[in-house]
Specification:
7-stranded mixed sheet; 19% strand; globular; binds S-adenosylmethionine; alpha/beta; 10 helices
Length: 275
């Protein structure tokens, strides 16, 4: 892909290092065209002449705000409702019944975290699964925390408005119950779902303001972009903030083999904390 801007090695290295430091996302030489395309658009918006000017902006006194925009531009936010639907089946059929058994049907507490929630399809799918499970959870205090590094996607997620075709992935009975159509044709998530979820920007590599413990963490299709040491640190922190026996769901191409010995594999890309 060519644009009017040449991306010289020096600038590419500076940008890659900055992205890795800010987000953990590793950009190697194979991603050069991708970076070029994504940031070329940013340079045009800012009216800059070349990547060297862009690097000066990033490093300068106004750089912090632009570094956020840089990371927003680089993140890959692909997601969908009920992606890897077997995870939601497992949640309804195994995790929730086991938690109720351990806690009793009354006044229990359940905390789920969608870490790297992108535009919100994942936490809304969790909320629909919780609302629809028809299990005895009288008086339970149930919350879903939904976080992402990219502030644009968190804003979109909190809004809960989607193009009509995106919600076709929601099973029809759930769609009928929890999705309405706005006058402009967009699909809106029901307030009963939104009231379960707290949306917050959060960089997984920085300090976490919450203390947990969480019962369930979904961190799917996020760490594929991180190097192994970053993955090791992150999964260790996930184990610590999960309750003992808590569940961790990862993406279809992700694995904890040689990354963490604090989890047992209990299902397809589903792990349980053991220590
Ligand atoms: C491909 S999406 C996955 C969304 C959803 N979990 C799913 O599986 O459908 C990856 C998300 O991870 C977020 N992400 C990347 N690095 C992050 C970091 N250091 N902290 C928090 N979120 C991050 C990106 O902004 C992006 O929205």
């Amino acid at each position: 892909m060519q644009s009017e801007y040449a991306l010289h090695d020096d600038d590419f290295r500076k940008i890659s290092a900055l992205v890795a430091k800010r987000s953990g996302i590793v950009i190697d030489d194979r991603k050069r065209a991708f970076i070029h395309g994504r940031l070329g658009r940013r340079l045009r918006i800012l009216g800059l002449a070349n990547f060297a000017e862009y690097c000066r902006l990033l490093e300068g006194p106004e750089g912090a705000g632009e570094q956020d925009m840089l990371v927003n531009a680089i993140t890959t936010n692909h997601t969908s409702f009920f992606r890897e639907s077997h995870h939601f089946d497992y949640l309804a059929q195994t995790v929730l019944p086991a938690t109720i058994k351990a806690n009793g049907p009354r006044n229990g507490r359940l905390r789920l975290w969608s870490a790297g929630c992108s535009t919100g399809e994942e936490p809304y799918s969790l909320a629909m699964t919780l609302r629809d499970c028809r299990l005895p959870m009288n008086g339970w205090d149930v919350r879903v925390l939904a976080t992402d590094l990219d502030t644009n996607v968190v804003r979109h997620a909190a809004e809960g408005l989607y193009d009509a075709e995106r919600v076709e992935a929601i099973p029809p009975p759930l769609r009928k119950q929890y999705v309405s159509t706005e006058p402009d044709g967009r699909a809106a998530m029901d307030d009963t779902l939104r009231s379960l979820i707290t949306f917050k920007p959060l960089n997984l590599l920085e300090d976490w303001p919450m203390t947990g413990p969480f019962d369930v963490i979904f961190c799917r299709n996020v760490v594929i972009y991180f190097d192994k040491p970053t993955q090791r640190r992150l999964f260790d922190r996930f184990a610590t903030i999960l309750r003992p026996d808590g569940w961790l769901f990862v993406g279809h191409s992700e694995s904890l083999t040689n990354i963490s010995d604090r989890f047992d594999l209990v299902g397809r890309t589903i792990y349980r904390r053991i220590r």
